[in-house]
Amino acid sequence: MSTSNADLCVVIPMKDPEQAKTRLGDVLPAETRAALTRTLFRNTLRVLRTVDSGLHIVVVTASPSIALIAHPFRAQVLDDPGEGLSAAAEAGARYAAHHRFRSVCILPGDLADPLAKDFETLFAAPRPDGSVIIAPAHDGGTNALIASPPDALPFSYGQGSCAKHQASAEEAGLSCLVMPLPSLLYDVDRSSDLGSRLVRGLDRSLGAFGA
Prior knowledge:
Layout: E1 8-14, H1 30-51, E2 56-61, H2 64-70, E3 76-79, H3 85-98, E4 103-106, H4 116-124, E5 131-136, E6 142-148, H5 161-171, E7 175-178, H6 196-208
Parallel strand pairs: 1-2, 1-4, 2-3, 5-7
Antiparallel strand pairs: 4-6, 5-6
Helix pairs in contact: 1-2, 1-4, 1-6
């Protein structure tokens, strides 16, 4: 399905794959963790392009290998300021505001099995000025956040970020919709996340790329 989201900028902060997924170090060697990071990122881009071939995507990264993956998907690459996830999200939001997008959507690049239908539902939700939409992670984190306008609130990623973002929205007088979406609940950070959802996501990704 292709829709129009011309006023929306999707921002994906991405670490260097060689430095990502350190919490999986007890079960996966470094080379495998890096390959997993790249595959999950590629799959997220693929699904987003399925949803909307014209979607404006910005990848915030310092990694040349991530930039190489992003380019065929027509994603803009923005230098990571190097101060953590929240700072990378802020950099993406500033880009969106500077380029006069009405809304910014911050997404992780390591969703286990994102489905187009859930992105469609998320992007179709009303987003008036002065509003925030949060798709929570199963562990209390934030796996998607749409802010309208892009600089509507500061980002507070980390443990319990869903509740922190809700509190920030309330403090700023913004409307806040929490929208749990099944395939956006799970990202891959810990060994407990290496389950059937990840297998399904990798199968879809590898199949899409003929691997």
